[in-house]
Amino acid sequence: MVKIDFSKLRQFQLTEDSDIKPFKCADGDLNDFLFEDAKHFQRELMAVTYLLEYMEQNKTVAYFSLLADKIIFNPDEKGVWNKLNRNIPNSKRRRSYPAVKVGRLAVNEDYSGQGLGTFILDNIKYAFSNVKRLGCRFITVDALKTAVPFYERNGFQYITESDKDDETRLMFFDLKNFINV
Predict the structure, then answer these.
(1) What is the DSSP secondary-structure string of 21-36?
(2) Span 82-93, pLDDT tens digits
(3) Is the CATH code 3.40.630.30 the one for domain 6-179?
C-alpha cells in the first residue's frame, strides 16, 4: 500500500481526450466501467465521471461517477418516507425529492483503507450542499452489499427494507445533515 498525500491529488472531469492512468480496484466491474464505459456514459449524458490522480505516482487513485436521481414516494414504505419528510417543512413536502446518485465510486487497491472514499463523499456532499449550482436535497447510491458498511459509516441510510437480501441496497444521505454539521 502506498501512503497517500491528499494535497498531491488532482481531480478532474473525464473527457474524450483524457488519458486514464493505470487503475485497478478489487471489483472487476468497476475496473471495466472506467476503461470501457465511462466515456460512453459521458457522451450519452448519462453520467459524469471524475478521476483523482496522484501526480507523484502517475496513477489513477480513484474515480467516481455522478448522475441525476430523485427519491420517489413509495406507499409501501411509509415509515421511510416519514423519516425523510421529518426534516422538511410541511409546505415544502413533495412526492419526490431531487438527488444526485453516486453511480460508481472506486479506489485503486494500492491506496485503499486510507480514507479516500470518505474524502470523495465529503467533497460531493460539500459541492451539492454549499456550491448550489442546482437544487439537490439528497445523495443516493445503489451500494454493493460489500460497500454497505462504508456508506453507513459515512451517514447513509436505507431508503427501503425490501432490498435487504439483494446484492445492492438503495441508500441515501440528507445533505441538510452535512450543512448543519
Answers:
(1) PP---S-HHHHHIIII
(2) 777 777 887 887
(3) yes
